[in-house]
């Protein structure tokens, strides 16, 4: 059943006929996949639907009117910024409206107090470019700077740069938020006056509801404006270099530098990270998987496979590379000091520095990572977790053992335990485990990917590990009873209170539960 004519006319009157469409061509342009992060999973193919209409508001007031109209006519809607995060960005029910926020593209920077106010249409590279002009910077998510700042702040939003300036939820300031029923809520100091500076108060601080740690994927309304803390950087310019698609930023060697270290063991990498944290040196530190090296060197998909076909489990076991970013925030002397300390730490642990390309390709302003899946055609992360560094080291090893049962169709990585990095000055460690496969293979291959995804979550519970995606990416009735405990009960109560008509991105946060219950190939994995 299509959107009623009365509802459509009301929505059209809000934005004008040029900013709403139910033309099949426009609707199909917003479909999920093929190609992209997580879009080729069985979940993406089975759960996502073509939108009933696309609407593009310009102001918070228009967003509010759209949301109230959707509640009045019981029309489901899905907030949309860039759609980068695959199936999470798309409707799961028929005839839902995608509220595309790209026209909301205002960006302001308060130089004195070092924060930015952004609308959902502003992407990370735009904000970073303006911040760098002022000697400031932000953490660009590890997925690259093509993402919406608002969306990436509310969901995930971390990267190796989170080692120096902390988690993104700590840097959220005042926020303007259209709740699922259409009421407008302003948080922090913005609740009392037109001042975004303070996120914690004296008004309400609801970061724990609007994003928690990972984010609630658009099921609790639409954030139309958000302030984000900026941090001092170094003053030298980062020069664009290369020709598309081989582009990057050339780094000023006396102020910004990558160094790769060959280490004797994984334990030596972990020890080096701890010692770096104690000495308070470095801007980022990550353990590098072997296949990253071949991805970086490959000139084509065929070249990657020619290189990777020479790998084996023994080579992977002996590959220990620590990648460190140094930034002389205050001076060249600071840079020299930190490099000397780092070299002493690594030398004591038996490591050796190796030549490193003096460019950045995704973690500061660029977005090369959008092509990470090209060597197989499909790519997703089955885990990204912030916990203690010791936990990060072990959890990837557990996932590698489990993955062996699903290879093929998953790309052979010879039990590489994924990658981990430092966060929050060394007080946290981050684990991410990537899987690749060919989406053009038989459906059964993709079904195995879906089953592996759920089995990793069950493995977390079995091993009493921190869950891989604690939130709406889990079946809530799998992980909820095990953690919190029963955090799913509270999540569903909050959803019911804020969205009584169930029109905001239904059935999130129960999308994974519905998928496991309804997809035939998932039913064998459900033992809870």
Describe this structure in words.
By secondary structure, the chain is an alpha+beta fold. The protein has 4 domains: 5-100, Uridine Diphospho-n-acetylenolpyruvylglucosamine Reductase, domain 2; 107-232, Uridine Diphospho-n-acetylenolpyruvylglucosamine Reductase, domain 3, CATH 3.30.465.10; 252-357 and 378-437, Vanillyl-alcohol Oxidase, Chain A, domain 3, CATH 3.40.462; 476-525, no CATH class. The protein is 33% helix and 19% strand. The chain has 18 helices and 21 strands. The chain has helices at 5-15, 24-29, 42-47, 60-73, 124-133, 149-154, 162-165, 207-210, 266-279, 290-297, 301-308, 313-317, 332-348, 389-403, 443-462, 476-479, 487-498, 511-518, and strands spanning 20-21, 53-55, 77-80, 97-100, 107-110, 115-118, 136-137, 172-178, 184-186, 222-229, 231-232, 239-243, 246-250, 256-262, 284-288, 321-327, 352-354, 359-360, 378-387, 419-423, 428-437. The strands form 6 sheets. The chain has a 5-stranded antiparallel beta sheet with strand order 5-6-10-8-9. A hairpin with a 2-residue loop joins strand 12 (239-243) and strand 13 (246-250). Helix 1 (5-15) packs antiparallel against helix 4, helix 9 runs antiparallel to helix 13 and helix 14 (389-403) packs across helix 15 (443-462). The radius of gyration is 23 Å and the shape is globular.
């Amino acid at each position: 059943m299509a959107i009623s004519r009365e509802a459509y006319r009301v929505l059209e009157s809000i934005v004008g006929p040029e900013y709403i469409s139910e033309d099949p061509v426009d609707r199909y342009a917003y479909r999920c996949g093929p190609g992209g992060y997580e879009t080729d999973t069985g979940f993406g193919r089975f759960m996502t639907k073509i939108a009933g209409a696309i609407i593009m508001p310009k102001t918070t007031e228009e967003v509010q009117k759209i949301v109230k109209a959707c509640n009045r006519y019981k029309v489901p809607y899905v907030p949309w910024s860039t759609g980068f995060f695959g199936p999470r960005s798309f409707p799961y029910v028929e005839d839902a409206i995608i509220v595309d926020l790209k026209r909301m593209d205002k960006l302001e920077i308060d130089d004195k107090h070092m924060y930015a106010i952004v609308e959902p249409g502003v992407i990370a590279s735009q904000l970073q470019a303006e911040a760098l002009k002022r000697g400031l910077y932000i953490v660009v998510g590890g997925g690259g700077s093509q993402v919406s700042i608002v969306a990436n702040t509310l969901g995930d939003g971390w990267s190796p740069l989170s080692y120096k300036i902390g988690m993104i939820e700590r840097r959220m300031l005042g926020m303007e938020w259209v709740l699922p029923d259409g009421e407008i809520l302003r948080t922090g100091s913005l609740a009392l006056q037109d001042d975004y500076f303070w996120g914690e108060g004296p008004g309400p601080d609801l970061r724990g509801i609007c994003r928690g740690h990972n984010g609630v994927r658009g099921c609790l309304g639409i954030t139309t404006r958000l302030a984000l803390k900026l941090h001092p950087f170094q003053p030298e310019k980062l020069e664009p270099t290369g020709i598309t698609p081989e582009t990057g930023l050339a780094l000023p060697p006396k102020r910004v530098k990558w160094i790769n270290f060959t280490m004797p063991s994984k334990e030596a990498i972990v020890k080096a990270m701890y010692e770096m944290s104690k000495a308070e040196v470095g801007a980022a530190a990550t353990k590098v998987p072997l296949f990253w090296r071949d991805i970086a060197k490959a000139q084509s998909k065929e070249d990657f496979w020619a290189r990777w076909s020479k790998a084996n489990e023994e080579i992977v076991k002996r590959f220990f590379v620590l990648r460190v970013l140094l930034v002389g925030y205050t001076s060249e002397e600071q840079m020299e000091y930190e490099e000397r300390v780092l070299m002493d730490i690594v030398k004591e642990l038996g490591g050796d520095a190796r030549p490193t390309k003096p460019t950045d390709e995704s973690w500061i302003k660029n977005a090369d990572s959008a092509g990470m899946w090209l060597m197989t055609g499909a790519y997703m992360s089955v885990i990204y977790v912030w916990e203690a560094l010791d936990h990060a080291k072990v959890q990837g090893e557990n996932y590698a053992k489990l993955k062996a049962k699903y290879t093929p169709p998953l790309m052979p990585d010879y039990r590489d335990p994924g990658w981990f990095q430092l966060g929050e000055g060394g007080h946290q460690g981050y684990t991410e485990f990537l899987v690749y496969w060919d989406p053009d293979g038989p459906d059964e291959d993709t079904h195995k990917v879906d089953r592996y995804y759920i089995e990793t979550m069950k493995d977390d519970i079995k091993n009493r590990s921190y869950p891989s995606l604690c939130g709406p990416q889990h079946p809530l009735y799998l992980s909820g009873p095990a953690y919190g405990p029963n955090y799913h009960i509270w999540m569903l109560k909050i959803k019911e209170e804020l969205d009584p008509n169930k029109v905001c991105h239904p059935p999130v946060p129960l999308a994974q539960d519905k998928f496991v219950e309804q997809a035939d190939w998932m039913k064998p994995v459900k033992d809870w």
